[in-house]
Design goal:
It is a single chain. Helix 5 (150-164) runs parallel beside helix 6. Helices cover 36% and strands 18% of the residues. The radius of gyration is 20 Å and the shape is globular. It is built from twelve helices and twelve strands. The chain has helices spanning 54-64, 72-79, 91-113, 117-120, 150-164, 178-192, 207-217, 232-237, 253-259, 275-287, 300-312, 358-371, and strands at 3-21, 24-38, 43-48, 128-130, 133-135, 169-172, 197-200, 224-226, 246-248, 264-267, 291-294, 343-345. The protein has two domains: 3-113, Enolase-like, N-terminal domain (Enolase-like, domain 1, 2-Layer Sandwich); 119-356, TIM Barrel (Alpha-Beta Barrel). The termini are far apart. Helix 5 links the parallel strand 5 and strand 6 (169-172). It is of the alpha/beta class.
Length: 389
């Protein structure tokens, strides 16, 4: 069996309403779906989660045609440099691109062996994967009013609790006026009772701002903080303000061990260079007593991979993030997932256990071609109106 073709398809998955956070707003999530086909017709699916990576994946593809899709060591060496840095090569970009391809190769292996991905990783330690409910201020969408006041956000949380029996709530601050956000958190706390409540600032506060505001928000019993400030050193500078765990999307384990922050690393399967490297990283987090969970915002392809890896790895025992309820489309049949009682069941079919909706995939690709990368509520890329407070 040999790799016959590799196809990279950038897509935009629209949100029912553009959400607001410290960087600006997002109306669609840009990802790159990877389709790998073998010479005997087995198809595997992967995903690059950091936008349009199609050109990079297309550039790597010729090196891999004709290789054994099950020989991951050889495939990885063919496209990922064996050094950490080079002035002539985008090492991180190569790792991220390979991570998307590698996922498709795991999907192929599972289909060939007739086993779900979690069995290939050693078997399931859990079959229901915990996920958070998410909230933020949102602009109106085509068929959704959004949430523009503290009470509207709190009412949405109350609806999610009543309709889906969510167990952990997580959402954005550092987005609008602080006094409004304090009211929002107060009303959410009233709506969800004593359920865990996490706040995510996306690094939107400066150190002194965080030192002043964290105690005010913690009057409402905050369970965890995600990136109240940007950077590990700034997290260390506010460590004395709260005993609540800090999480970060930056995955730098040596610095985390040296500084004592963050307590949890929140990332994806591409950042370390694929499933195998991520599993190794999670085991290192476990040895260092640092938590790990997956972030939100992927299509059903990468999101399903998160479910499988979480099912197989005992250390990923906390609730990962999800935006499933915000999606207005997806590329998999039956997507997006619908968490109930705070969990989603891991698929049990071979490989990822998903079926691609070809019509939806084409629709999401056409949307990318029309919108561009990560459009915001006003059609501007999400980072263009970023400002820290």
């Amino acid at each position: 069996m040999q790799i016959a073709t590799i196809r990279a398809i950038p897509v935009n998955v629209p949100l029912v309403a553009p959400y607001r956070f410290s960087y600006g707003s997002i109306a669609s999530l840009t990802k790159t779906i990877v389709e790998v086909t073998t010479d005997d017709g087995v198809v595997g699916w992967g995903e690059a989660v950091d936008g349009d990576r199609s050109a990079a994946i297309d550039a790597l593809a010729p090196r891999l045609i004709g290789m054994d899709p099950l020989d991951l060591d050889t495939v990885e060496r063919a496209v990922v440099p064996g050094y950490a840095y080079s002035p002539w090569a985008d090492v991180l970009g190569a790792k991220r691109s390979f991570g998307a391809i590698e996922l498709a190769l795991w999907d192929i292996r599972g289909k060939v062996e007739g086993k779900p991905l979690y069995e290939l990783l050693g078997g399931a330690v859990r079959t229901e994967i915990p996920l958070t409910e998410y909230f933020s201020y949102r602009f109106p969408g085509p068929n959704h009013p959004g949430e523009s006041t503290p009470l509207e956000v709190a009412r949405e949380c109350a609806r999610l609790l009543e309709e889906f029996d969510g167990t952990i709530f997580e959402g954005k601050v550092g987005t609008v006026a602080v006094e409004d956000e304090l009211v929002m958190v107060r009303e959410i706390r009233a709506a969800i009772g004593d359920l865990p409540l996490r706040l995510d600032c996306n690094g939107g506060w400066l150190v002194e701002t965080a030192r002043n505001l964290i105690p005010r928000f913690e009057e409402y019993d905050i369970d965890q903080w995600e990136e109240p400030v940007e950077g590990y050193e700034d997290l260390a500078a506010i460590r004395d303000v709260t005993d609540r765990p800090f999480s970060s999307h930056v995955a730098d384990l040596p610095r985390a061990k040296a500084l004592g922050v963050p307590n949890v690393i929140v990332t994806n399967l591409n950042e370390q260079g694929g499933i195998r490297q991520t599993v190794t990283f999670v085991r290192a987090c476990q040895a260092a007593d640092i938590g790990f969970r997956f972030h939100s915002g992927e299509t059903g392809v990468a999101s399903t991979a998160y479910l499988h890896v979480t099912a197989a790895i005992d250390h990923i025992d906390g609730a990962s993030q999800t935006l499933f309820r915000w999606y207005a489309d997806d590329v998999i049949v039956g997507g997006p997932y619908v968490p109930r009682h705070g969990v989603v069941a891991v698929p049990t079919g071979p490989g990822l256990g998903i079926e691609i909706d070809r019509e939806a995939l084409d629709r999401c690709h056409r949307r990318f071609l029309a919108e561009g990368v990560f459009p915001g509520a006003d059609g501007v890329a999400y980072g263009d109106d970023f400002a820290r407070s």
